[in-house]
Each structure stands twice: as C-alpha cells, then as structure tokens.
UniProtKB/TrEMBL annotation:
It comes from Demequina zhanjiangensis. Residues 594-617 have a biased composition (Gly residues). This is DUF2207 domain-containing protein. Residues 315-539 form the Predicted membrane protein YciQ-like C-terminal domain. Residues 33-229 form the DUF2207 domain. InterPro entries: DUF2207, YciQ-like_C. The keyword Acetylation does not apply. Pfam families: DUF2207 (PF09972), DUF2207_C (PF20990). The keyword Iron-sulfur does not apply. Residues 1-24 form the signal peptide. Keywords: Membrane, Signal, Transmembrane, Transmembrane helix.
Amino acid sequence: MKGTLRALAALMLALVWTGTAAYAASDTTGNQVTRWDAVWDLQADGSAEVTIDFDFDFGDDPGHGPYLTFPTEVDYGDGVHTRLFDVHDIRVGSPSGAPAQAYVDESGGAVTIRIGDEDVDDVSGTQRYVLAFTVDHVMNATTAAELGGEGDQIVQDELFTNVVGTDWTIPLSDITVTIESPVEVLDLVCWAGDAGSDQRCGSSEHEGSSAVVTQERLEPYQGLTVAVAYPPGSFDTTPELVERRTFVGSLGLGWYTVGAAVLLLALGVGLVVRYLRRNGLDVEYDQVTPGLAPTLGATAPVRTRDRKAPVAVQFEPPAGLRPGLLGTLIDEKADTRDVTATMIDLAVRGYLSIEPVGDLDSKDGDFTLTRQRDADGALAPYERLLFDALFDGRDAVTLDDLRTTFAEDMEKVQKSLYDEVTVRGWFKGDPHKARSRWAGLGALLLLAGVGVTVLLALSVSLGVLGLPLAIVGVVVLATTGVAPARTAEGSRVLAQTRGFELYLATAEADQIRFEEGHDIFSRYLPYAIAFGHTERWVSVFEKLAARGVSLPEPTWYHGYAYGAFWMYSAGLSHRIERFESLASNALTAPTPGSSGGSGFSGGSVGGGSFGGGGGGW
C-alpha cells in the first residue's frame, strides 16, 4: 500500500494522456479538436482498452495529421521507484478517408503516436480519426488513511488518471469520456482546467458500471482528470514498478561490485607502477661515485638512481657541454629558457653581439642582435639552426623583429635539442616523445574509462566497474612528468651538472675563482640562465663591482664605452632579466592570423575578418 504521495503522483503524472494537434510546430495556428469521444473499458487485470474517436480540424494549416503522446514512465512518489505503463496493441483509422498510418516512437519515458502519412503533408479540412490501444496497470488501491480515515486496509479500487492531459497546445471542444467496467461504480469525481485547478468538470454521472464525464471546451494546456471508485478487490491493482535510475544506483555500488572495482583499480595501478619502475626511472652506474665514469664502460652494472643522494659542488660545467643541453638534461624539457641561454652563449663565444635599444623600462625598450661572424663547424646542430634562423638573410635583428615570426623556427630548435640529448645517450628515448606517448595513453584510458562507466551504468547498472579504468587514466596523466628516463650516462652527466648548478646558486662574492684574462661572469652566465639562477649569479658580480673589484669587460654586450660596463652594473640584473623576458616573448609569440583590414583598400567577397555562414535545416 502506498500513501498520499502515490495518490498525488497519480493525480499529476499517472498516464497523463497528452496530445498535440497536427504534426507541425507547437506554435501552429488554426488546428483544433472539435469533437472528442473516448471510451475506457476497464479490465479485471487492471488494464484498460481505450478508444478515442475524434474530429481534427486542420483550419488554415494543412499537414500530415494529428499526433498524441502518452507517458510510459512516471515517478511513483516514494523516492525509489518509477511506475511503468505499457501502451500496446495500437490501432488507428480514419472513417473520413484521411491518411491514417501509425508511426510509433517510444523514448524519454513517453510514447508518441503520429497519425497520417509522412509523404502527404497537405491534409486539410475536418477529418475524423479513431485511435485504439491497450494500457496496462492503470488501477490503484485506495486505503482508509488515504481517504482521511485510519488504517491501511483497502477500501476501494480506483481509476485516477488524466483522460486529457495538460500538454495540448491547441483547444479541444465537445469532450465526452465514458468509463466502462465489469463492476458497479461507487463514486465519480472529475476536474477540468489548468494544471493544479480544483474546478469541477462540465458534468459527471454514473449508473451501474458506467461513468460519463463531459466538458464543453479545454483551452491549450488545460486538462481533464477523473477519479472513479469501485469495490475493493475488483481489479488487479498491483503497479508495475522498477527501481528509479539514479547516478549512484547506476553505479551498482555493493560489497561485491566495489570489491571487484578495487581489485581492478589495484591491478591497473600496479601495472602502471610496474611499467614506470622498469621504464620510467633513472638509472646510474652501480658502485661508482656519482658524476664519475666506470672503468667497465657500457658493460658496467647499473642501479636505480638515488634522487636524494648528496651533490658534490662542481666549480665548472661538464667539459664541452653547452648550457642548452644541460638545461634540457636537468628538467627533461627543451624550454624557452634553454634557447635563450643558447642565444647568450653564442654571444659570449663571439658569434653575435647584443646591444640595448631605447629605454628598457618602457614598452619601446628592445635589444639588437648583430652577427659578428658566420656559423662554423664548432656549432652543434641546434645552435646552427638557432643562429641561421636569427640572421636569415640579415646581419642584425631586434627581438621585436622576431616576434610572431620565430615560432616555427623555435619548434625546430627545440626538436633538435631533444634529438641531441637522445643521440648522446642521456635518455632511454626522446624525452618529449616519451611524455607525449604517456600523456596520450592516459587521455585514452580516461576517455575509455568514462565511456565504459556510462555504458555499464546505462545497460546493466554496474558503472562502478568502469571507474577503475578512468582512474588509472588519471594516474597515468599525473605521472607524465616521470615518463622520460635517464640512462646511467645521463645520470652521470646530471650529477656533474647538479654540482655546477649548486655552485652557481650558492657562490658568494668572496668565493668566485678568477682566472687571468677570463671573463668568468660571461662564461657562466648562459648556464645560470638555463638553470634558473640568473638573478643570483648577476647579483654576485654586482657586489664585486660595487666594491671596486676589477672585473673583465664583457665583449659581447655593447652600448657602453669600453671600461664602463661595470660602472653601471647596479642595473645589470634588471637588464639581463629584461633581455630574458623580451627574448622569451619574441621566440614563442604565435604567428598572427588575418587582421581586420579594410574593405575599402581592395576588399572582396570572403575577404573580411568576421562573418561565418548558415543555411537551411
């Protein structure tokens, strides 16, 4: 037995016989139902055989024919179940001779019946149609408590339904509904009007086993509801219920399903961990001091690199290795900072010079790069690519000139850097490709997991079994950064590089080792840029200059008279950082698309910057 909630649900939703005239848009004009004669023949099994004989006036809007919709799923009112109404044995006809094929579509908790012919859309005038069907489980059992008394005993069986729903968008007139049953009617009530109205219908009367209600007219979105009472036990009042589908319910949470999902997740994460342990962890030479090469060479045993091992300070970079390469080795990325460091390194080595232009504190401040000598065999492939791209048919270029034109060359330089560290055997494979493949796998697993979860939830309500796949995808995406793995040789060079980085990050002014005739500031500045310690390294020399220490004059930075570079060193840190910022923006700025332009300077069809298109549908 159900309480008042079920009665209210039945009033509002149970078999809401909705219909709309003419299979045209809901805002059509001229259509109306001028006569509606419906007969509900109730059966002992709780079903009803329904026949609707109606006249449909097309008015000034000819079309295919009418269509009617009926709900097949409604909320039962207990917060758990959905009540089902099976509409079947559908039959249609037109005594007036109008096309009367039945097109039935059941979806979204309703069945739609279109009457007419899809190939005939000019039916006009007033046509008569007859629709017949059977609907199961329409009868309810009413308890004493539901009638205001006490107790759960059933006191009557009841048909409580909307014989004309409130979703009609056209008016209906001359409405008669007859309810026939195998037993005597105890009581009859009907209501008509807007949804929620308690206004009684035009007329209602019953005699013996027949009940008849009438209504002169219903405006659009008005309905007609009846409640007919019969002796208890006259009908099968058992409703057809299914558990209401909810997100949590569709997941199929339970001890067994959750346990199975946990096992699947553990298996998936275990496979990810196993793969990363075998392929995603750095290795280093075993029983060898970090940074040193083993005597056995390539045949030396290796072990997983200890990331927490202490780093010994190195007072110079690994021999013969340039800052762009070491920057890529440290963070496994050939980023803009590595390319900018390479640019400075080329200047320090005499291939180009750098000169400030204008006020660097203003938006017009810039730097000019001037070729000092041609590229030669001493340049690595990535350095040669960078140098040739900077001075492509020119001897001088400003950073602003490179803006929006260098992005494609930048990608080539970065790819060459990845190729270089891979060819040198520092990584098990191209680190960029390793990250991309791992990220692609994670995205694929995540999307597949979501798809499997939805599929299992909708089909068998076991969506929880698809979640582990999606979670494993998230784990893979979260570990993308560890996908590249260094070889033992890469770890050896990394140890030296980390030691030199420690020196650049911690050296004090009194600890700088000067060599006669060597500009140590310029020599190590590109490495400080690649390692992210520019400000720290420059500040050390600013302090030395402020003390009056004689420092070698950088030959690659112009704009000052010889001997005056360190005289203005108080702003050196700012100038270097400004160069880094402008260079980074210039090297990575995307190539622009078309501008708005003007149609008055040679415009044509399709030449504007905005617009789009459209068409019929």
